[in-house]
Design brief:
- This protein has 413 residues and is α/β, with parallel strands linked by helices.
- It folds into 2 domains: 2-208 and 377-404, Glycogen Phosphorylase B (Rossmann fold), CATH 3.40.50; 225-373, Rossmann fold.
- Helix content is 36%, strand content 17%.
- The chain is built from 13 helices and 15 strands.
- Strands 1-3-2-6-7-8-9 form a 7-stranded parallel beta sheet, sandwiched between helices. A 6-stranded parallel beta sheet has the order 12-11-10-13-14-15, sandwiched between helices.
- Helix 1 (39-51) packs across helix 13, helix 2 packs antiparallel against helix 3 (87-103) and helix 10 (305-312) crosses helix 12 (357-373).
- The longest helix is centred in the N-terminal third of the chain and has 17 residues, at 87-103.
- The chain is globular and about 65 Å long.
- Residues 407-411 have low confidence and may be disordered.
Length: 413
């Protein structure tokens, strides 16, 4: 059950919190410190919804907001000094300022730690305070992440160099945590191999979304093929080059739908529908179900919830082979993955699916099956909650959901 859903800016009545002592057989008392930005907001909503259905959880959810001095430190100060990028470190210290009055040791904490058996923190940027709390009597701590600094720099080759202090702080956080929930095996292997965290303290939590479609896409010969792009970070997600390809090659036979708050609207572009900032509910219930193909030639993403949402709507996906994305999109089964810098590969893949409705329908069937079987939201979010209860009860962790655990440590294809 969900006892309380709030933000850190709300006034909290201590009477609304779980009791100071967990009685034998009572639900595990869990505190969720959530992130709301980017895809983390979608994950937060889905975790909260899943927790509401559980009789073995007594859950408090605090949706974190950053204001004032922490916001200045974390988001407003330039973060590059020569070849060093300090964004991660600034975020960690800013969020420590936010969290200290919430869960710091002391009688005046908003959420006294004796009221909880397990604390779930999303993400590592918000978990620096954990290094001062770990090892003391109290709740177990879980950090939920989608990337590490080492894996990020290795995969994207964008940041000139990650400062060693940032990697060292991440290592301290991972070792201080009782468990690390990883959005993909790509990041799980980094926490294990690059940071030396034992695998029995790691588990997968793929931040999936509920299925939208109940049947695969059937081609409609009476209208142009509809391509959809979803992403507010227009350049990073590859929007400019997708628009260029469309205008040069497919404007006469395919519509391009752009769902982005930051895409510069070009009314002269032929056969382009500019949706602008699209509310999430409208995106998944109205826009995606009306499309034929999801395309995002992204330069930098670690999991790509938008691609998972597209598959949940039975849309084939054309996107980049990066980081944890191959664990979301099954190449040749539910979509086509291309090297992120290979324009020709993207053009061939998109053109093939525009021209071949039979292949498009085959991949649509694969997308729907993958969303229902391997990327089921209820399965993955309940798997996360199962591990929190296991930690609270002192039981071992399970790496993947039981439904996918054909072999020990198995992960979805």
């Amino acid at each position: 059950m969900n006892r309380l859903v709030c933000t850190n800016l709300d006034a909290i009545d201590p009477a609304s919190l779980p009791p100071p002592r967990r009685e034998p057989g009572a639900p595990a008392r869990a505190l969720f410190l959530h992130a709301l930005k980017l895809g983390f907001g979608t994950t937060t909503r889905n975790i909260t919804a899943a927790a509401a259905t559980r009789d073995d959880l007594d859950a408090v959810h605090c949706n974190l907001r950053i204001t004032g001095l922490p916001d200045l430190i974390g988001n407003r100060i330039p973060d590059r000094l020569g070849r060093w990028t300090f964004s991660g470190l600034r975020q960690m210290h800013a969020w420590r300022m936010v969290l200290r009055p919430l869960i710091g040791r002391g009688e005046r904490s908003v959420f006294p730690l004796d009221r909880f058996d397990v604390v779930h923190i999303m993400t590592v940027q918000r978990a620096l305070l954990l290094t001062a709390l770990a090892g003391r009597p109290g709740p177990r701590f879980v950090v939920n992440i989608d990337a590490t600094t080492v894996a990020f720099d290795r995969a994207f080759e964008i940041r000139t160099s990650a400062p060693r202090p940032e990697i060292a702080v991440e290592r301290r956080i991972f070792h201080a945590a009782d468990a690390v929930a990883c959005a993909s095996r790509w990041v799980l292997e980094s926490v294990r191999d690059d940071y030396g965290v034992p695998e029995d303290r790691l588990f997968l939590h793929m931040p999936c979304v509920p299925a939208i479609a109940t049947a695969p896409r059937t081609p409609d010969p009476g209208r142009p093929v509809r391509l959809v792009f979803v992403g507010n970070d227009w350049p990073r997600k590859g929007g400019p080059r997708l628009l260029r390809w469309h205008q040069q090659r497919w404007a006469d036979r395919a519509e391009l739908h752009v769902c982005s708050a930051r895409a510069p609207v070009d009314r002269s572009a032929r056969n382009v529908v500019w949706h602008g900032a699209t509310p999430h509910d409208k995106l998944v219930r109205e826009v995606l179900p009306a499309m034929d193909l999801f395309v995002m030639p992204t330069w930098e993403d670690t999991f790509l919830i938008a691609a998972q949402e597209a598959q949940a709507a039975a849309l084939p996906v054309v996107t980049s082979r990066l980081a944890g994305i191959p664990e979301v999109v099954a190449d040749g089964v539910s979509g086509i993955l291309c090297d992120r810098a290979d324009d020709d590969a993207f053009i061939r893949a998109i053109e093939r699916l525009i021209d071949d409705p039979i292949e498009r329908e085959r991949l649509s069937r694969g997308a729907l099956a993958r969303a229902a079987r391997d990327l089921d939201a209820a399965m993955w979010h309940n798997h996360l909650l199962d591990q929190l209860v296991a930690l609270a009860d002192g039981r071992p962790l399970r790496t993947v959901p039981a439904a996918l655990d054909a072999t020990p440590g198995a992960a979805p294809a």
